[in-house]
Amino acid sequence: MERFEVKFPASAAGAAQHPVLAGVVSSGNLEVLVETGADPAACSIEVNTSAHGFRDIWEAVLGDFAARHAVGGLRISINDAGATPAVVSLRLAQAFEHSRTEAP
Amino acid sequence: MNFPAFPAQAWDGRLRNRAQRIQRAAPLASGRQVAPERIVALLEAVLEPGDRLCIEGNNQKQADFLARALVQTDPARVRDLHLVQSVLALPEHVDVIERGQVSRIDFSFSGPQAGRLARLVENGKITIGAIHTYLELFARYFVDLTPQVALVAAQAADREGNLYTGANTEDTPAIVEATAFKGGIVIAQVNEIVDRLPRVDIPADWVDFTVAAPTPHYIEPLFTRDPALISETQVLTAMIAIKGLYAEYGIRRLNHGIGFDTAAIELLLPTYAADLGLKGKICTHWALNPHPTLIPAIEAGFVQSVHSFGSEVGMERYVSARPDVFFIGADGNMRSNRAFCQAAGHYACDLFIGSTLQIDLDGNSSTATRGRIAGFGGAPNMGADARGRRHASPAWLRAGREARAGKAMPRGQKLVAQIVETFREHMEPAFVERLDAWDLAESAGMDLPPVMIYGDDLTHIITEEGIAHLLLCRTADEREQAIRGVAGYTPVGMGRDRRAVENLRDRGIIRRPEDLGIDPRLATRDLLAARNIKELVHCSGGLYDPPKKFRNW
Fold first, then answer.
1. In sequence order, what are the beta bridge partners of B279?
2. So what's the ipTM on this one?
3. What is the predicted pLDDT for the residue at B166?
């Protein structure tokens, strides 16, 4: 397992309405949890991954996600079981959209 | 008269040679029928050193009994053969090379035997003439690669030797026509000999010998994709394809590859595409095998016509029950024809879309990897602009306008798309600076790197990152950035010029899912019209009968 946390300065998203869990951990898949964080001007993302040596790719994927969405004030946790960047981006987008619009 | 006098010469050498072969074989047959236990001796009697030999087989049906018989022949008698055939798929196809009975091969596809073949080439055991596309190889059957002997497979023969090839007619007409009309010998293995055939697919006077094989010929269910294995990323790329390409160009006539990416598109037609109001506007006419994943779209009334290269195991009853859609004989069974369907895919379709293993910065793509000589089968015929095409359609005209902006003479262009996830399994990038095909060409001494789709034929690339309209690019530099722009987090993608890519996005050359108004929340497996094989069976009204290995309920 590798664990790290990245933090992006971001405009306030109007904080997540409610925590949302999207995706399930299985082979080649991952779990994303979106919650309200402490700092409304930043987005913190914690990554727990079973794959080693892809931190630069993670940071690029997460950086693009934070740039494309209004993620300020969110705290996101990711449990990864070897998902491809495509799956990571899709799950993040799904979890983000759900966190803004749907009741838990 | 200014015509020199020539010495008298014989003009029937091939016919006399044919008569000699038949004469040598006659004692081993009973009329045209050969007992299975005498087939090895018959092959030894018929074949001559240096013969061009076609063992019928494709990625679907195989003349497997005759292939097994060939490797039992005496290498001292049956030798120096030149194999001219669609595929080297069976172990026996390569065994006969290893036994030293073959000196040269011309073929199209060798998927399952690709590794063994590459070793034989590297060790100098065999010379490859060329790796053809199917149409190209069939064409050469009628020019300079006409077989002296063809070993073909049919469902049934009658007592006279007429053949019924039925739904899996495939390559048989092309092979038999070339062989029979140029003094060659045609030997057919059949699953059964019957008094009366459902219909005649190959007339008896084109066939010299028939043998009832002890076991039915093998057919690979190559076009069955279990929807249970379709990923959410593939659902997303299918949504991008439908909204960003099919709807955009109004594509009605098309061919799909055999991957899960295109299976996902087929399964989104009755759901996502129908919700977008696209029924009747896209995907009405197909050059396609009877893909089980097309069943929901057919049932939903999306599909008006399907012509097929071959059949698909388990689809026979369903296909027969939909004669308005498929090509069905008076006997009620489908007839496929690979040569005609390849021609249909090349000339009469506006779009080819398929997947690949590697795409380079020029948009060249290949499934060739080091140590494997696999070939491409039909994809290059479908995935190439038809330069001989002269009829117009809205999709073809629009692609031509976009690609040829500024040129005086109006002309259309075929849409050729590659659909890939940026990383394959094990984080292998689908985008590369240099195709492995170059290394393969070098190690195997090929004239050309084996490229499946050339970059100048490729109009679109679709990944989970969006769609790149390569045909709108005006310079090589723009094109490279458009490719990098959908290459995601691969080294090729990370190497993009961010400003150039944003500029391409502003001009609509790259469109992200959000630019197309695609809601990522819809990109789940719930959007598939059938989520597993059992649901496909249900959707077919119980007419689809999947092979055992796909039944898990």
1. B282
2. 0.88
3. 95
